[in-house]
Amino acid sequence: MSERGRIIPEFEDLSLREIFVSKYRIMYKVLEEEIIIAAVVHMSRDLRHAFGSANE
């Protein structure tokens, strides 16, 4: 169930996933024995500006 969400396209980390709830993106990191909620972001936000590019 932890890998239910899609891989976040803005980042290159395959362990980062997201699900959509209403107008929000719930982003989480899948670890071996736990899930860490990384962020809850409104869909109108541009992630490249909010968090910086994964390539920077």
Helix content: under 10%
Estimated radius of gyration: 11 Å
Strand line-up of the largest beta sheet: 1-2-3-4
What is the assembly state of the chains in this entry? Answer: single chain
Strand fraction: 35-45%
How far is the N terminus from the C terminus?
A: 31 Å
Outline type: globular
List SSEs in N-to-C order: EEEEH
Number of helices: 1
Return the structural class. Answer: mainly beta
Low-confidence stretches: none
> How many β strands by DSSP?
4
Residue-averaged pLDDT, rounded?
84
Major β-sheet, in short? 4 strands, antiparallel
How would you characterize the overall build of this protein?
By secondary structure, the protein is mainly β. The chain has a domain at 6-44. 9% of the residues lie in helices and 41% in strands. It is built from 1 helix and 4 strands. A 4-stranded antiparallel sheet has the order 1-2-3-4, with no helix packed on it. A hairpin with a 2-residue loop joins strand 2 and strand 3 (24-30). It starts with 5 loop residues before the first strand and ends in a 5-residue tail after the last helix. The mean pLDDT is 84.
Describe the SSE topology:
Elements: E1 6-7, E2 16-21, E3 24-30, E4 35-42, H1 47-51
Antiparallel strand pairs: 1-2, 2-3, 3-4
Could you list some keywords that capture this structure?
single chain, 56 residues, mainly beta, 4-stranded antiparallel β-sheet
Write a brief caption for the model.
The chain is built from one helix and four strands. It has a four-stranded antiparallel beta sheet, with no helix packed on it.
